Amino acid sequence: MMSIFDFSDTAWVREGGWARTKLVINLALAAALTGGFLLPESANAQAGGSREQLEQMFGNISKQTKWDMSKDMLWGYFFTNPSRGPLDAAAKLLSQSGYRVVDIYLSEKEDASAPDLWWLHVERVEIHSIDSLLKRNAELSRFAQSHKLASYDGMDVGPPEGAKR
Fold first, then answer.
1. Which end of the chain is more exposed for a tag (fewer CB within 10 A), N or C?
2. Right CATH for 2-158 from 1.20.120.1200, 3.30.1330.60, 3.40.1550.10, 3.30.70.970
3. Are residues 115 and 123 in contact, defined by beta-carbon separation less than 8 angstroms?
4. How far apart are CA 106 and CA 124, in angstroms?
5. 69: burial class by Cβ within 10 Å (0-12, 13-18, 19+)?
6. Domain residue ranges of the chain, discontinuous segments joined by +
7. What is the pLDDT along the chain (165 residues), one digit of tens a residue?
């Protein structure tokens, strides 16, 4: 069963629970809802997607949008943790590295007894190829591990109109 969770104007297409996601990209739906594409972390793949998944994402963007991926795009990156404190510290460090902090927020729970899950959303206007995005995802995964965050959960992309640099 697929469900869509809307966080900060970004539609998250998810299958299953919060802790891990199975990569489900319905690009037409995501584009219709948000004007952006999201590639969450797969349970058994590199955070942000494997080369094959990124090739598919770039191919679908090319076929289904008029975006020029060789130009600046707004890339959003997402981290999770069961408590807010480490995300506050990570946000400060990422901000010093040129990322804009969009939000730190607590997920709504379907079950009140479920553990808390906090999200950090940062973004940056930049150009990515498949290779550079693989490198960025690996870098952000290492960042999450070194700062003892629960996960680097993946990224989304959209046109940079009105984005702050």
1. N
2. 3.30.70.970
3. no
4. 22
5. middle
6. 2-158
7. 222 233 333 333 332 222 222 222 233 333 333 344 444 433 334 678 899 999 999 999 999 999 999 999 999 999 999 999 999 999 999 999 999 999 999 999 999 999 999 999 999 999 999 999 999 999 999 999 999 999 999 999 999 986 565
